[in-house]
Amino acid sequence: MSLLVVDRLTKSYREGKTAVNALSFHLNQGECLGLVGESGCGKSTLARCLLRIEAIDSGSIILNGQPIEHLNERKLKPYRRHMQMVFQNPSAALNAKLKIKDSLIDPYEQFHHQLKLKHFVFTSKAAYIKQLLEAVELPEALADRYPHELSGGQRQRVTIARAISIEPKILVLDEPTASLDVISQGAVLKLLTSLRTHLNLSYLFISHDLAAVHQMSQRILVMKEGWLVDQFNRDHLFHENRHPYTQELISIF
């Protein structure tokens, strides 16, 4: 059974624009599913809908066998820990007034009564935070710093550490390397690949960068103007029957 099944998900805005149009896909355990498309095609809207940050107009979102599209906040909370998000801009994702250790402990404090951790052992706050920082290859000394004291790559690693801290089943990665320099991009992609294997995570990897999506993913979805126009296994990227828009993206690959 797939971990996440999305069926004909549709999201429109008041001005009449349909950002996501009858989109269907599934995500399997341990898989990295890539979603590629140009800016404004609806990728980030889809991500916010999956996390129930935004309400959908129609369709269904089934997480671990449970439809979650109509659950209220109280009923949704047990499912939120299973699907976490890493945003494009780590500076905006981290509270500038909190030390790194306080940002990292926050998800545990919200969900601790639901957690049976397998990979991270909570014997003390300090030991737990040290494990999280080590998992994303950051030194323990960063725990007492504020976000502005870290580089962009370090801040993104902190947001990844926070996302994996409660051992979710799925990470929704929304342009996770877009704000980083080329060297940091490569290092973060390598880290994400390692974490997926070590923690048995499943990824929805969203990007406008077809090269990064191709590197990371087993299957690839292509989105254009709110529609899903192509989907294929990674090895079939250069197949002759690819959608014309996919071929456009390949031409600038």
UniProtKB/TrEMBL annotation:
Residue span(s) of domain ABC transporter: 4-250
Domain of life assignment: Bacteria
Keywords, ordered alphabetically: ATP-binding, Nucleotide-binding, Transport
Keyword Oxidoreductase: no
Annotated InterPro entries: AAA+_ATPase (IPR003593), ABC_transp_ATP-bind (IPR050319), ABC_transporter-like_ATP-bd (IPR003439), ABC_transporter-like_CS (IPR017871), P-loop_NTPase (IPR027417)
One GO MF term: ATP binding
UniProt keyword ATP-binding present: yes
Family: Belongs to the ABC transporter superfamily.
Protein name: Dipeptide/oligopeptide/nickel ABC transporter ATP-binding protein
Organism: Paenibacillus zeirhizosphaerae
Lineage: Bacteria, Bacillati, Bacillota, Bacilli, Bacillales
